[in-house]
């Protein structure tokens, strides 16, 4: 994937947090990892991509960031089930919204979610992964985009 | 009062929709987490209005819309999905959905979309 396409994901994640209308999302400088597995935070939602492009898009965040998002949604239940669910839902929304730019042949899977360290079988170790670090209300997360044309 | 069914594999989205709709106009009769479960529950509860996610396990939302419309062509289906490309929206509408709300959505947008659905 070319670096220029990264702006699509930056715009989508910014728009996602704009729905809450309170505090702006801070997007740190994206960077590239080659042939390394990116680190993850407390909870991660992974979307498999197939069709015109292949790879994964995932959202990984601290439990504090996810809890803040749940607060903004009016959700009082901050159970682990809901934190995991939210990580998957954010990943799903980011990937689904990307179809507006990549087209209907950008096929997305249902979210695969996990807590803690990555399963090496899930996240790619090879190829180029673009990391988009974000913070909101002082809590951190990241979007990782690893796509092959 | 319109009978409402919420279909989404995400618990937090189902809860969010439940908190947002106007309880004076809609009565929740069922929730479902997959297309398969949605068709089963539709046959039991016969809701007037359905909110439908598209990316779900077992049976996706587009297939589920077709099956539900085959059972009741009069049901109003509001697609609530992150799939934002035009062709998905057109496909959903051609299968019989009545409206499309793209995620992420605000509570106000959801309420407005549900209101428009039953006004048509």
UniProtKB/TrEMBL annotation, chain B:
Modified residues (4-aspartylphosphate): 53
SMART domains according to UniProt: REC
Protein name from the UniProt record: Two-component system chemotaxis response regulator CheY
All residue ranges annotated as the Response regulatory domain in the record: 3-118
Species of provenance: Psychrobacter luti
Residues annotated as signal peptide: none
Alphabetically ordered keywords of this record: Phosphoprotein, Two-component regulatory system
GO biological process: phosphorelay signal transduction system
